[in-house]
Design a protein that fits this description.
Blueprint lengths: L7 H10 L8 E2 L5 E6 L9 H8 L2 H4 L2 E6 L5 H6 L5 E4 L1 H9 L4 E8 L4 E6 L7 H5 L4 E3 L5 H9 L6 E3 L6 H5 L3 E6 L3 H7 L4 E5 L9 E7 H6 L1 H20 L2 H10 L5 H15 L2 H6 L6 H13 L9 H4 L13
Parallel strand pairs: 2-3, 2-4, 7-8, 7-9
Antiparallel strand pairs: 1-2, 4-11, 5-11, 6-9, 6-10
Helix pairs in contact: 2-11, 2-12, 5-15
């Protein structure tokens, strides 16, 4: 299921490799442009709109043939080496990369509200993350995560014992005083399926809310293929509109590619993520939209946490290309 992907350790490689040949959108004999999208995890609902755009024929309508590949934290390397046209990162990874000299630009932010959270047992007395941090017990979080550093700075006198996250829910299932990191579309669903009742607090509610599942490309690639980039973003916006309206066909496609997740989990995760993707902001300005205020806040937070040595230029971190997100009927 979804896992954290903070690629700070790969940024130096990205910068060094950045001078290598950049991929181009290759037209076929029929005028269809071949492009590639590298995910940062397996085909799951957090990528549903990208597959929905294929199922519904939106890529084809925009004269695109999009090759989607699953993966992990190697996306920055693939972008830098010119082995993919578009990749999926988190907004904090984009800022960190740019602070190291990498020419990465965010184009479309799927999650307007970050899906990272802290999962507790339903009967806990905690009403928020502050209560978790300031109470006895155990909190399992991957060391070095930006949001952990943010929480530790916000709650310097925390009483909770922080231990490394072991990428499972095994300890959570047997220890009522155990809390752990999660994505709202992942671990809580797995725990509920095994009989545990959960309570989840979003990191975003504490004030740290980077865009997530962000479509990224190199700046020079965007400049060289502006029309194609606009068409790609328009197609994925349509795909996400379609997925939010009805995820069933895209879930079926992803289920064939990722047989580790069953149909019920696909459906539950798709439902859980809806309010994190479609917000008042996207209803006004379109799915995937981003604001300078959000990026500016993130840059300052990463700087305050000393995760970046200097702040990248705000207007170079992201772009809002032309997009279409009409209602899709089924």
């Amino acid at each position: 299921m979804i896992r954290e992907h903070f690629a700070a350790g790969l940024i130096l490689c990205l910068f060094v490799m950045g001078c290598e040949k950049q991929p181009t959108a290759v037209p076929s004999e029929q005028g269809v442009r071949e492009v590639s999208l590298s995910l940062n995890w397996k085909p799951e609902p957090e990528f549903g709109g990208f597959y929905a755009a294929d199922v519904a024929g939106f890529y084809k309508q925009h004269h695109l043939n999009v090759n989607i590949t699953g993966g992990g934290d190697q996306v920055p390397q693939l972008l830098a080496a010119g082995k993919c046209d578009f990749g999926i990162l988190a907004a904090d990874e984009v800022v960190t990369a740019r602070s190291k000299g990498a020419d990465l630009v965010a184009l479309f932010a799927v999650y307007q509200t970050n899906p990272q959270g802290i999962m507790c047992h339903a009967d806990t007395k905690a009403k928020n993350i502050g209560d978790v941090m300031n109470s006895p017990g155990t909190l399992a979080v991957q060391p070095g995560l930006p949001y952990l550093l943010f929480l530790q700075a916000k709650y310097p006198a925390a009483k909770v014992k922080i231990v490394p996250y072991d990428y499972s829910i095994s300890q959570f299932m047997v220890d009522p005083n155990y809390a752990q990191q999660c994505f709202v579309t992942s671990e809580p669903i797995a725990a509920e399926q095994k009989g545990a009742k959960t309570k989840v607090f979003l990191i975003a509610d504490e004030g740290f809310n980077p865009y997530a599942t962000v479509v990224v490309a190199r700046g020079d690639y965007i400049k060289a293929h502006k029309k194609m980039v606009d068409d790609f973003v328009a197609a994925i916006a349509q795909g996400w509109r379609g997925y939010l309206d009805d995820p069933s066909q895209a879930n079926e496609m992803m289920g064939k590619l990722n047989q580790e997740m069953d149909a019920a989990t696909f459906a539950a995760a798709a439902k859980a993520q809806e309010p994190l993707i479609e917000t008042a902001e996207t209803k006004a300005n379109g799915l995937g939209t981003m604001t300078a205020e959000r990026w500016s806040t993130l840059i300052k937070q990463l700087s305050d946490l000393k995760l970046i040595d200097h702040s990248p230029e705000l207007d170079e971190c992201f772009a809002n290309p032309a997009r279409q997100s009409p209602k899709v009927s089924h």
